[in-house]
Every structure is written in structure tokens, then in C-alpha cells.
Amino acid sequence: MSIGEYVKDKGIPIFIAAITCFLTLSFMIIMGVYLPWIVMAEILYIAGLCLIGVYDCMRKKHYYDQLGEAREELEARTYLAEIMEQPNFYDGKILYDIIRENGKYLNDVIADQQLELLEYKNYVETWAHEIKTPIAVAKLMIENNRDRVTAEIEEEIRRMEDYVEQMLYYAKCSSLEEDYNIQNVSLKKLITGSLRKNAKMLIGKKVVPKLANLNFQILTDPKWADFMIGQILSNAAKYTSQKRPPQIRISAVEEEDKIRLQICDNGIGIPEGDVSRVFKKGFTGENGRVYQKSTGMGLYLCKNMCEKMDVDLKLESDRESGTQVTFYFAKG
Amino acid sequence: MERIFIVEDEKKMRKELSEVLVKNGYECLLTENFDHVAEEILEQAPDLVLLDLNLPVHDGFYICRELRQHSEIPVIVVTSSDSDLDELMSLNSGADDFITKPYNVHILLAHISSVLHRTYGRKESIVLNHNGLSLDVLKSKAAYQGQEIDLTKNELGILKALMESPGVIISRNDLICRLWEMEEFVEDGTLTVNINRLRKKLADLGLDEYLRTKRGQGYVV
Fold first, then answer.
1. How far apart are the C-alpha atoms of A247 and A265, rounded to whole Å?
2. What's the per-residue H, E or C state across chain B?
């Protein structure tokens, strides 16, 4: 609490005090009171008012400063109402009661929302696992009845799987608790695994992966990393350029305590104005509108997951050379 | 012929899965009664168990532990949950391997054969036969009327994929997929080169028209 502000706030009482002071002064002069007595009385009067002011100011300053400090230290600020002390001045007590009650109400609402969110998330995860059984059955049926039609259905099933996976990871990474598990992973295994998982899509688009040295160990959650790399590969396969044979170059370099993983495609690239916004949720940009339907979720999820795992993620792109995505993983 | 016991409560899944396995040369044992699965498995004594986790009556972990008390029979847990906890609990319950749905069929088959190899030792040979040509997968050799040729890894992969489903046209993309599963990430041109080499080798055996091209669709034996 600032004393200056307090004094400013008391402008009207001070004004009233000054007027009464002036009036009593005038009254005493008119009554012909002996001058030293007048001065004495005025001094006592002003001193009394000042003392009242100082006492009130100190009492409030002490209380509010303490409250402010408590608020700074509190991690979950919504609990302030729970820990605040009752003030010993009347108007403070009224405010205290109101804040207490309001805080309780807000915390109840928040708790309800969190519970609802958690239940929703659990349902989404269960659903995603339930849907996998019919998908698995459909895949087996396709395997048992290979022909042109089932080959096309297989492609659609693959897309369904991708959407389900994206949703599952969205639920996982927007959750309140941390859902990942950092391990020491072989980068080479990770990349070849992701390439194999996305083989159908890449081969369908005639994309050729070119791998440089990937013999590094990195620290990451293997499933999250696999998902993120899958998203990047899927983007590379989606936005291929007709001007050149599609290619994905994947390379890694050691940089101090990080492993820099670079995934470069030679696709159509992203227009300059869109590059800075690709990690925004739901952003589809020109490519999303013109070339292929896009959900605008893939890169957003990648960025979100990277932030949670403390991995730097960068994207550079231009229409001439294509898109380069760079991950900075901790060295394993 | 190896016998695989499938513990899966979803009827369609069971049927399709057993069809795939039978096609790939396994014998399948199924059950519809989940009250005494462990006893039934022990009675039938299969070579391998494919075990789902979410089952009526007892869950997969329980069945796995039951089995382990009496037998060392290999168990592969197949589940739709990809949580680390399930994987950990499966392995702790004594399962040999863990694979999540929906799986790639070839990957499942690879897991099955690798667990079988680990448990019963490497087989002497896995031989595919079609129209007089026999393909020894482990030795990477093809033989016709007493003559033998050596195949490279890619040639073997192509011929194996075609001979596994004789009479079925396999697209170029599917063949490239199969090659990706094995080793290098080859491109379209490489497949053409490998097909031509394979044709030449087969011609050396006197099989000129063995591997036929279906224009715009793929290849077939």
C-alpha cells in the first residue's frame, strides 16, 4: 500500500478538516481569544487529526501489505481467499467475508470444471481405444480379401487411424496431469519406425526418404516423438510439389548437449506470411485451403508436446526449397 | 504346423485373425468360453498364445499369470491400449511380447515368428511352394527342378510377398511397402530394377513367364 495514494484518497476528509480548522480559527479570532491560545488549540486539533490518519493508514498498510505478499507467494492464486486473515477494521471485515464466500464459490466451480474435463478426457481416451478394435477387424478383413476396392478402403482406414491418433494425443497433451515418460531412445530406431508406420502414405505419394547419420541416443517419450515425426512426415507427403520428385531428407547433428534432428522435404513450402503462424491451433493457411483439407492441429500438437517435454521446435519454409523442421532433443 | 491359441472375445476379430493366421500356415485354436481359459489352453497345449487383455470373466493379466504357474508356453499380448503400464504389467505377468491394435498384419506375423523362433529354436527351413518353384526363405534360395539360385534380400522379399498369395495381384506400392518393412527405404525405380533381376534369375531356372506383370495393377505369380 502506498502512503501517497492513501493521502490522495483522503482528499475530501482533509478538505473538510481544513475548512473546520479555518472556521474554528475565524470563530476564535472574532471572539477575540488570546492569540497563543488559538495557535495552541489549532495545533492540538491538527495533531489529533493527523494521529487518527496515521493510525488508520498504518493499520491498513500492515494488513494489505501482508495480503499482497501472501498472494505473491501463493502458487494457486484461487486459494487466496482460503489463507487470507481477517482484518481488524470494520470495512475490511465486510470485504473479507465477501471475498471468502466468492472464493469458495469460484473454487467449487473450478473443481467441477476440472472434474468434468478429466471425465471428458477419460471418455475420449476410452473411446479412442474402443474404436481401435473395429479398425483392427477392418484391417484384418482387408488383409483377407485383397483386391482393388479393399486397397482403397485400406487407405481410408489409414486416414481414420490418423485422425483417431491425433485426437488421442490432443486429449493427452491438453490434460492437467503430465502424461509422458521420458526415456533414452535410439534416434535411428525412432525414425525408421515412424517411416515404416507411414510407409503406405509415403509410398502412395512416391516420397523417397533419404537418411543421413542418425546414430544418436536422445531423451524423449518414444510414443510422443513417434507421433510428432509422423505428423511431419504426413505433412511432407500431403504437400508434395509437382515440379520435382518428392523427397524427405532426415539428418541429425550433435550440438553441445542437444541432438539437432532435421526433417526436410522438397514440397510446395509454406507462403512467407503463414510461416510464423503454423504452430497456432486450427491454423490452416493458404496450403490448407488450396491443396488439401487440413485440420490445423498437427503442428500445433507438435509444438505443444515439444513445449511440455522441453524440446525446441523450429520450422523454416519457402516456396522454392520446401519445408525444414528442426527438433532439438536432449542428448541421451 | 504350429498351433496358435487365440484368446479374443470379439467374434469378428477372432474369425478374421484366425483366417489370416491359417493363410500364413498356422493352425488356430479358438474359444468362446472365457470361464476357464487358462485350463483350456493348458489342455490344448498350443505352441503360442495370442492374448487380448480386455476379456470377460478374467482379464489377460490374470490368465497370463495362471498360465505361468504351470507352463512356459509363449504368450503375445495383443491389446488396443498403448499405455506403458499395460505393457509393463503384461511383461511382469510373464508375457513374452506385446503388440498394440490396430497392428500391421505383417508386423504381427513377424512378432509371432520371432517369438516362436526364440522359444523353439530357429527352424531348419521355411519353404513356400507354388507351381513347382520352391522358395527357402531362411536360406534365401529359390529352386526349380533341382536347380538353385541365390536371391538378394530385396529379391527374396518380392518373391516371398508374391508367393504368399499366389494368383493375387500385388501392387507396386504394396511391394515397396514390404521392402520398407524389411530394410532399406527403396524407391520406385529400385523396385523395377529388382523385379527385372528377379525375372532374369527365374529365367535362368527356365521359368520365363513365372512373374507376370498386370499393367497398371501390379505383379502376380
1. 6
2. CCEEEEECCCHHHHHHHHHHHHHCCCEEEECCCCCCHHHHHHHHCCCEEEEECCCCCCCHHHHHHHHHHHCCCCEEEEECCCCHHHHHHHHHCCCCEEEECCCCHHHHHHHHHHHHHHHHCCCCCCEEEECCEEEECCCCEEEECCEEEECCHHHHHHHHHHHHCCCCCECHHHHHHHHHHHCCCCCHHHHHHHHHHHHHHHHHCCCCCCCEEECCCEEEC
> ipTM of the assembly?
0.78
Within an 8 Å CB–CB cutoff, is residue A124 touching chain B? no
Cell of A38: 488559538
Record the pTM: 0.77
Task: Measure CB to CB from residue A140 to each of B17, B80, B185 and give the nearest one.
Answer: B17
Each residue's pLDDT tens digit, A16-50 = 999 999 999 999 999 988 889 999 998 999 999 99
Q: Is B187 on the interface with A (CB under 8 A)?
A: yes
3-state secondary structure of A71: helix
Check CB contact of B181 with chain A, cutoff 8 Å.
Answer: yes
Q: CA–CA separation, A121 vs A116, rounded Å?
A: 8
